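Class prep. Write one:
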Amino acid sequence: MQNLNAMISLVPKMAPDDYVGFTFFIGAMAMMAASAFFFFTMNDFDRKWKTSILVSGLITFIAAVHYWYMRDYWFVNVESPTFFRYVDWILTVPLMCVEFYLILKIAGAKPKLLWKLIVLSVIMLITGYAGEAIDPENAQIWGLVSGIAYFAIVYEIWLGGAAKLAKAAGGSVLKAHKMLCWFVLVGWAIYPIGYMAGTPGWYEGIFGGLNIDVLYNIADAINKIGFGLVIYTLAVRQTEAEQLSA
């Protein structure tokens, strides 16, 4: 009984109105559940789709692990875990870009597209971290560079080479590609908004005062799990189509 009481006393208390802590906990559990789902369904598909499902599971698994750390960091320090968040993003965001390449391989996507998207995503994140955590006095400059890299990704997938490959593939691949594009355009938009809410600049009057951690946590869960579900749906449709045509 004493050991049980000692263990309970080590568990950090959460205030009923601690929405940040609540979303950290929910985010961790949701992404852990998503990882289990993706990993356990890998063998349901042809080999060419297994890698895409594996990457989806890795994205949510990496995020789940980091969310456990960020949750504990928040409970102890009651401040935004910026460092851990960017460590998570520097691993998961490039993997989300990899998903575009994997689904477009069917249309002849080359490794050049893969590395282009990865490099742009890394530039976006490194400059974002510099402006938010290392050199906030020049947050506008760092944010501008980060924003340019983000819009370069948006252009590539909506109008550039990736978009042309998706049109060439057609069918369910094109539908999945467009859905992922919407996640990047709309879902990822919360990140620059959160950046502006957390750094000084002319935009403080617009976005200042927003609880960026709640926004980030909700956006992370929707974007990362949503990305995986789009890939899963594509794999299901392609597998069913191949079975019907066999």
Summary: The domain at 15-245 is CATH 1.20.1070.10 (Rhopdopsin 7-helix transmembrane proteins).
